[in-house]
Amino acid sequence: MSFGGPNGTAPSQAQLDRFLALSFVNNIIGAVGLFSLLIAFAIGMTVIYHDLESGSAVAIFSKPLSRFAFAVGKFAAAVAAMVAIVGVLGLEARLLMLLYGNTGIEGALWIQTVAQVANAITLMLLVMALSTWMNNIVAAIVAFIYNAVAGIAVALYDEMVAVAFGDKGVLKAGFTDLY
Predict the structure, then answer these.
(1) By the 8 A CB rule, do 136 and 46 touch?
(2) What is the rounded average pLDDT of the residues 116-143?
(3) What's the rounded Cα separation, in Å, for the pair 115 and 123?
(4) Which three-class secondary structure string do you get for the chain?
(5) N or C: which end of the chain has fewer CB within 10 A?
(6) Angle at CA 97, nearest 5°, toward 94 and 101?
(7) CA-based nearest residue to 28, from 105, 114, 117, 96
(8) Does residue 57 surpass a pLDDT of 70?
(9) Alpha-carbon gap, residue 92 to 177, rounded angstroms
(10) In this structure, are residues 29 and 119 in contact, taking their beta carbons and an 8 Å threshold?
(11) Quick one: how far is CA 53 from the chain centroid?
């Protein structure tokens, strides 16, 4: 088996090392993203639904505490937990990247970690809001479907921006609206 670069030349060791480091960072970002979504589902499914199901919300609301203050407190605690847990995952990922030394791509991990936290917080808020009206499992399923549709919309928009669909005005307007 042979593989080569431009004009049939083999890639250099530096190019192979760079490719390996980029592949590793891509896998780490994917793992942090997956775990942040799982954490978002777990926190979102339990943070408010548990208080409503167990009846402790009745005792809480009998005190001079508004429903808005209760919801804001629960949301703030959930966001703090999410940031702390995913922050630890990001630090662990950064420590793993030290295996490759200074590759110049360390900033990508931090940016992607912040983006994953923002996406997970949005999904967690959706699950929390839906779990006040429906079963927490059903709320998680609805949020999962929303997340999948949003991922498809972003992927289609990225393909459109990359001109994979050509210069079709109606298709471009539809994907832009979907995005």
Answers:
(1) yes
(2) 85
(3) 12
(4) CCCCCHHHCCCCHHHHHHHHHHHHHHHHHHHHHHHHHHHHHHHHHHCCHHHHHHCHHHHHHCCCCCHHHHHHHHHHHHHHHHHHHHHHHHHHHHHHHHHHCCCCCHHHHHHHHHHHHHHHHHHHHHHHHHHCCCCHHHHHHHHHHHHHHHHHHHHHHHHHHCCCCCCCHHHHHHHHHHC
(5) N
(6) 125
(7) 96
(8) no
(9) 38
(10) no
(11) 28
Cβ neighbours of residue 7 closer than 8 Å, sequence gap 6 or more: none
- Which residue is associated with the tokens 């993203």? 33
- Tell me which residue has tokens 């912040």: 114
Token pair in block for residue 166:
């050509």
Higher-confidence position of 118 and 179: 118
Residue type at 68 in one-letter notation: F
